[in-house]
């Protein structure tokens, strides 16, 4: 009896120890990724990286200025599609979402969130690249926009649902129409959370490579024309990363460092924003 | 007017006000239209890919998914090597990531005090936010050389007689893809499992403890209580692994062969799209690639639908209890 109890206690301790070990094992790759990105990319980060164009093979130096601007443009184009659909769709789900149609939309949004981004690239290819007969920033924007829709929709819905019901009732009791209540009271109250969701979607879109490979393609030159192929940081990281030139590989790491820094800053900012949003929701 | 349950309807006033006020009617219809666009998007996605892959569907029919030939020169295509690579890499990465992810989830929900659990779960979720291409770069330059010089020679020495670990230590290959995928899907498993475990009422554990069980046995009761949610998290992670593109493309070796050995290069559906789409010259080639995208779309759609239903069924239950 006592032996059995000792065995059970020991097993309990051992299983918990294994859980602790798995936390350490899970954290090792994260630490290593940060360490290697900083140590390999840090040396190639300088003013030129942000201001110069890529140099041809054989010449050292140069930067990825066009790719950084390209990523911004592509994400901006994507936001033009993702923002209205995502935010308005999210408002519908939060404010009128008590019917089978809304349940179907909610379900499809979640399912769409799990569809691989490269599939969205293929769809943007058939919808935009094929009719236009060439690769373009528009196609890349469409692909990123489709990706952003489900993310923005669900966070908008969640954030508006936290807004207490009494706020809506108070506004309606004052005779404010329902649509004004939604826009001026509910949306404004939940705005911090909604913007957070949008920022996360932007960050994820900025880090996407696969849907851009055969929509926006790539471009080694300055290009601000939307119907031409456009450079992006991620596609440059891919092309440079698998290249045989040390100089290019260092720039790929530098690009990765820029991306990770962006995402780290956004995640921490979001962390603080949602914390205050949830505190407001408890009221 | 229809009576709505207080928990689900945020607006107590529904259809009547909407009819009376033009602004309300317009706003309602506009938001409904955008919600409808999400449904339409799924339909358009499926239809577009079906339409553009018709050349390949006509040429190969259902045989496409069981043909293992992939020869752009002779215009002969089959998806089996890619389906094989996708399924094997995803399932094996799940085998690695599931125990680890569960361990992290148990640590966070049962063991760690809040001051420790909060930063750890934040850091683990950061893993999920790192772009795929950064994993690819890290896998290509750090993980693959490590596998080539340390892990794979050891595996070959110890287990070389098994077909799974036969061959030369390339570094690049199925094993590298499995490792990188396991790292990438771990945060999905751990964060959802943690949420599901936290949703189990504390009284369940207290009851077990009161009956004389050890704290691990109480935890096991909490796990069995939330197993459908954990299963949902696992399937969700599987969905992510199936569609993962850049990181896998950079480390799997991209060769359309079916090999039992994990040390050999492979290919996945997502990587063949990433690699060959811009190079595809003939119409049939493009069409075959789009058919692969369609298969991938359908698989991930089904996998995610199952996962969502499972996760929903659990979290809905916990909402009622609160």
Structure characterization notes:
The complex is a heterodimer of chains A (283) and B (322). With 283 residues, chain A is mainly alpha-helical. Chain A folds into two domains: 2-44; 47-282, Orthogonal Bundle (MetI-like fold). Helices cover 76% and strands 0% of the residues of chain A. Chain A is built from eleven helices and no strands. Chain A has helices spanning 2-41, 47-51, 65-96, 100-113, 117-132, 137-162, 165-173, 178-189, 191-206, 233-241, 246-282. In chain A, 52% of the residues are buried. Chain B is an all-alpha fold. Helix content of chain B is 73%, strand content 0%. Chain B has 13 helices and no strands. Mean pLDDT of chain B is 88; it is low at 1-9. The two termini of chain B are 29 Å apart. The longest helix of chain B has 39 residues, at 283-321. Chain B has two domains: 15-52; 81-321, MetI-like fold (Orthogonal Bundle). The interface between A and B is large, with 99 and 98 residues.
Outline of the structure:
The complex is a heterodimer of chains A (283) and B (322). Chain A is an all-alpha fold and 283 residues long. Chain A has 11 helices and no strands.
Radius of gyration of chain B, whole Å: 24 Å
CATH superfamily caption of the largest domain in chain B: MetI-like
Return the structural class of chain A.
mainly alpha
**Could you tell me the strand content of chain B as a percent range?**
under 5%
Helix content of chain A: over 70%
Number of domains of chain B: 2
Q: State the CATH class of the largest domain in chain B.
A: Mainly Alpha
The proportion of residues forming helix of chain B, as a percent range, comes to: over 70%
Give the termini distance of chain A in whole angstroms: 52 Å
Strand % of chain A is under 5%
CATH C-level class of the largest domain in chain A: Mainly Alpha
Shape of chain B: flat
Mean pLDDT of chain A: 89
Principal-axis shape of chain A equals globular
First-to-last CA distance of chain B = 29 Å
Task: Classify the fold: give the CATH topology of the largest domain in chain B.
Answer: MetI-like fold
Low-confidence stretches of chain A: 278-283
- What count of structural domains of chain A? 2
The description of the largest β-sheet of chain B is: none
